[in-house]
């Protein structure tokens, strides 16, 4: 009868780390179970060498600065040290407990700043960027009062290709009186980008697009006085200033 | 570690793709082990490096995954998305070209 107790121990240890994403939890459980299955049944010599190897590996980073912007990555702190604990359970219950305490603490500390995997749509939808109207409050011509502009207007000649700024899925596209030909791209749970007043659309609803794929061409359809791309970024349901997400 | 970890940053995703290209489908731990074995213990990938890279590539549609029940748990296998096979091949070839170029420049005494 196979002994599956190690699986329960691994699941308990990983639960200690309070990882919110069940997919990642599942993958890490498999990772450690595979590790355990590999070292099981080897002699003490190899066991000692394996433990030393684990002790020498470095902690993973929690986040990384990319293009001057903090980008939170899904990282796993040194839970490879779980392997250390699990090996000890199985082969040598006399290992120094203080080692476990120190390593567990390190793992816990780095995980308190845990952020979910999310890549903001950082990039330019046009090769040449010329902002003709900024995000935020703007006065309408003819003294018609103020209106909030939820995106930025990028002046460009008719027919200029528009590139998707980050990989995602086309959740909506079509025509309406205000937006003209428009495309909405959803990148992840948090971010959606929108492109209005297109001359033509080169994608279909439901289509998966990769970063830098051509979405369509700059036009002047809908409520538009001159050829331009109206570009919006929606974060958690609310518009944000796209200027913060453009490359210099 | 016998090399500057910065060298791994730009090449990790291509390393993964090359292994998937050679081996069909692989799971995370298997990719770590194969890399370690083939590189004679020079390149040791941790779960902190490999899973973020795999998830990012999956999100981009470069690789796809399937799940399977294994020994009391669920295992995720990754493989190259056949729709993007030519892009993947290009990436692998370009790293190969870069490596050849480096061989010509980098000499040790």
Unreliable sequence segments of chain A: 57-80, 90-95, 107-118
Q: Residue share in helices of chain A?
A: 25-40%
Q: Total strand count of chain B, please?
A: 3
Strand content of chain A: 25-35%
Mean pLDDT of chain A: 74
Straight-line N-to-C gap of chain A = 63 Å
* Most residues in contact: chain pair: A-B, 36 and 24 residues
Strand residue content of chain B:
15-25%
Task: State the helix count of chain A.
Answer: 5
Task: Specify the biggest β-sheet of chain A.
Answer: 10 strands, antiparallel
What's the Cα radius of gyration of chain A? Answer: 26 Å
Largest sheet of chain B: 3 strands, antiparallel
Apparent shape of chain A: elongated
* Oligomeric composition of the shown chains: heterodimer
Give a structural overview.
- The complex is a heterodimer of chains A (248) and B (109).
- Chain A is of the alpha+beta class and 248 residues long.
- Chain A is 28% helix and 29% strand.
- In chain A, the strands form three sheets. In chain A, strands 3, 6, 7, 8, 9, 10, 11, 12, 13 and 14 form a ten-stranded antiparallel beta sheet that branches. A two-stranded antiparallel ribbon of chain A has the order 1-2.
- In chain A, strand 1 and strand 2 form a beta hairpin.
- In chain A, helix 1 crosses helix 2 and helix 3 runs antiparallel to helix 4.
- Chain A is elongated, with a radius of gyration of 26 Å.
- Helices cover 56% and strands 17% of the residues of chain B.
- In chain B, strand 2 and strand 3 form a beta hairpin.
- In chain B, helix 2 packs across helix 5 and helix 3 crosses helix 4.
- The two termini of chain B are 20 Å apart.
- Chains A and B meet through helix 2 of A and helix 3, helix 4 and strand 3 of B.
